C-alpha cells in the first residue's frame, strides 16, 4: 500500500495529513503518517497570546495522537535525523527525556514524503542573542516567557520599584506581526494583572521597546497599514524604534549599532526566520541560504519528484514578484495543492502548479485595535480595514484553520465552549 509521510504538524502539515487521512487513510487506499517532535499542535500565529497568558496552550492545544485516531492517519512522535532518498527512508532521532531513552532511533519507509517542518527564529549570529533572548518558536518557549513575565511583575509589585519610578522593561527585536502583536498583548496583560489584584501596578509600570532594523514596522504590509499600527502602538506607550540595528544582547539589555544600551528585564527575538540547520544537508536536497528546500512550481523538491515541501520550509519562486512569503495562508494554500498533486501523481495524471493568492494581512493589537488589508492582489491595490470588522476577520482566520481540521460542526461547538470559558475562566492565565 502507498505510504505518505508528512514531517511537521504545523498549519500546513496537519491540514494535509488530516485531508489525506480522510480521503485515503480511512478508505484503506494509503497509509498516512504524521511525524512531529511535539505531542500537541497550536496554531503558530497564537504564540504571542500564549506568551502573555491570553491563551492557555494546555487547554487550546490539539493532541496529535487523538486527532490522528479520529481522521485516519498515524502519528509518530519524533524528530528527523536524515532522509535516504535512494531507499526512500526517513530516519528519526532517538527520543531522550531526563537522560533516558524513551524511544529508539527509527526508520520510516515512504513512497511520498512531505516536509512541513516550518521555521525557527533567525538570530543572524548576533552576539549574546541565544543566551539572553527568548525565541517564540513553539508553545514551550512561549510558556517560558509567560512564566518569567509573571515572576517579574510579582517581583516588581513586592519591591519598592514603583516608588522609585522603575518599570518592568521588555524589549522586542523585530517588528513583524509577532513583535507588533506581542507589544500590544503585554499592555493587555498588565491591565488584567491589575484587575486580579497584583499590587502596585499602574499604566506606567510597563515599558515596552519594539526594535526594527528596517524603515517601518510590519515591513511586509502596505505603508498605510504599517503607519496605522505604528500610531496605535505609540498611543499605548510602546517605544517604537525603526532603523535601529541590534549588535549584541547582554543580561542588561540590547546594544545597538550606535552604541546605545536599551535596558530590558525580558528580551524577545522575533527578527527574521530560517529553517533548522539540519536541513542544509538533508538527503542531498537543494536548499537556499536560510536552509529552505528549493521547490518546483508543483511544490516537488528540485532534486526529487517524490518529496514535496510546503510552508515556511519551502522556497517557492513567484516569478518577478520574489518568493512566496512565510505566512499561515501560504502553508494552507500549499497544503491544498500538495493534497491534489499527490492524488494526481498516484493516478499518473499531470500535476498542477502553485499560484499564491494574497488574501490580505491582519494584525491584532490585542483588545485595543486590529488593522489590516483584505483581498490583496484580487483587486487593484487592497482594502484597508480596522476596528471591530478587522477583529472579526482576524478571528475568522483561526476559525478557518479549525474548520479544515475538525469540520463545521465541531468548530461551532468549540466556539460555544470558548464563549462559556470566557465567563468561567480568568481572562489571563495566572499560573
Automatic annotation (TrEMBL):
Domain FAD/NAD(P)-binding: 3-335
Keywords associated with the record: FAD, Flavoprotein, Oxidoreductase
Domain of life: Bacteria
SUPFAM superfamilies listed in its UniProt record: FAD/NAD(P)-binding domain
InterPro entries reported for this sequence: FAD/NAD-bd_sf, FAD/NAD-binding_dom, NADH-Q_oxidoreductase
Keyword Oxidoreductase: yes
Record keyword Oxidoreductase present: yes
Required cofactor(s): FAD
Family in the record: Belongs to the NADH dehydrogenase family.
Name of this protein: NADH dehydrogenase
Amino acid at each position: 500500500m502507498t505510504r505518505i509521510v508528512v514531517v511537521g504538524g504545523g498549519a500546513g502539515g496537519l491540514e494535509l495529513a488530516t485531508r489525506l487521512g480522510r480521503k485515503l487513510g480511512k478508505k484503506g487506499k494509503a497509509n498516512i503518517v504524521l511525524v512531529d517532535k511535539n505531542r500537541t499542535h497550536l496554531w503558530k500565529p497564537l504564540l504571542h497570546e500564549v506568551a502573555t497568558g491570553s491563551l492557555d496552550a494546555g487547554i487550546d492545544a490539539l493532541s496529535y495522537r487523538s486527532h490522528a485516531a479520529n481522521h485516519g492517519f498515524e502519528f509518530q512522535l519524533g524528530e528527523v535525523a536524515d532522509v535516504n532518498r535512494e531507499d526512500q527512508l526517513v530516519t528519526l532521532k532517538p527520543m531522550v527525556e531526563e537522560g533516558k531513552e524513551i524511544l529508539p532511533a527509527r526508520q520510516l519507509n515512504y513512497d511520498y514524503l512531505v516536509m512541513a517542518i516550518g521555521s525557527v527564529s533567525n538570530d543572524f549570529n548576533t552576539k549574546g542573542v541565544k543566551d539572553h533572548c527568548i525565541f517564540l518558536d513553539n508553545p514551550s518557549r512561549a510558556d517560558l516567557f509567560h512564566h518569567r513575565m509573571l515572576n517579574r511583575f510579582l517581583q516588581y509589585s513586592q519591591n519598592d520599584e514603583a516608588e522609585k519610578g522603575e518599570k518592568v522593561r521588555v524589549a522586542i527585536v523585530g517588528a513583524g506581526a509577532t513583535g507588533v502583536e506581542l507589544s500590544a498583548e503585554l499592555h493587555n496583560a498588565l491591565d488584567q494583572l491589575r484587575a486580579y489584584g497584583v499590587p502596585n501596578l499602574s499604566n506606567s509600570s510597563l515599558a515596552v521597546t519594539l526594535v526594527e532594523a528596517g524603515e517601518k514596522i510590519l515591513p511586509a504590509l502596505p505603508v498605510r497599514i504599517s503607519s496605522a499600527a505604528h500610531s496605535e502602538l505609540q498611543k499605548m506607550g510602546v517605544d517604537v524604534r525603526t532603523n535601529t540595528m541590534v549588535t549584541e544582547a547582554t543580561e542588561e539589555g540590547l546594544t545597538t549599532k550606535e552604541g546605545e544600551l536599551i535596558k530590558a528585564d525580558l528580551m524577545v527575538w522575533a527578527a527574521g526566520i530560517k529553517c533548522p540547520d539540519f536541513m542544509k544537508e538533508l538527503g542531498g536536497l537543494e536548499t537556499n541560504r536560510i536552509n529552505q528546500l528549493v521547490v518546483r512550481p508543483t511544490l516537488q523538491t528540485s532534486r526529487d519528484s517524490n518529496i514535496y515541501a510546503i510552508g515556511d520550509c519551502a522556497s517557492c519562486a513567484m516569478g518577478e514578484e520574489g518568493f512566496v512569503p512565510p505566512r499561515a495562508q501560504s502553508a494552507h494554500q500549499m497544503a491544498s495543492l500538495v493534497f491534489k498533486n499527490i492524488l494526481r501523481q498516484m493516478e499518473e495524471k499531470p500535476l498542477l502548479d502553485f499560484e499564491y493568492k494574497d488574501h490580505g494581512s491582519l494584525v491584532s493589537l490585542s483588545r485595543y485595535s486590529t488593522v489590516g488589508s483584505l483581498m490583496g492582489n484580487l483587486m487593484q491595490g487592497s482594502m484597508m480595514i480596522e476596528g471591530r470588522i478587522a477583529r472579526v476577520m482576524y478571528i475568522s482566520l483561526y476559525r478557518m484553520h479549525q474548520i479544515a481540521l475538525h469540520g463545521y460542526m465541531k468548530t461551532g461547538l468549540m466556539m460555544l465552549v470558548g464563549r462559556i470559558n470566557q465567563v468561567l475562566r480568568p481572562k489571563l492565565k495566572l499560573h
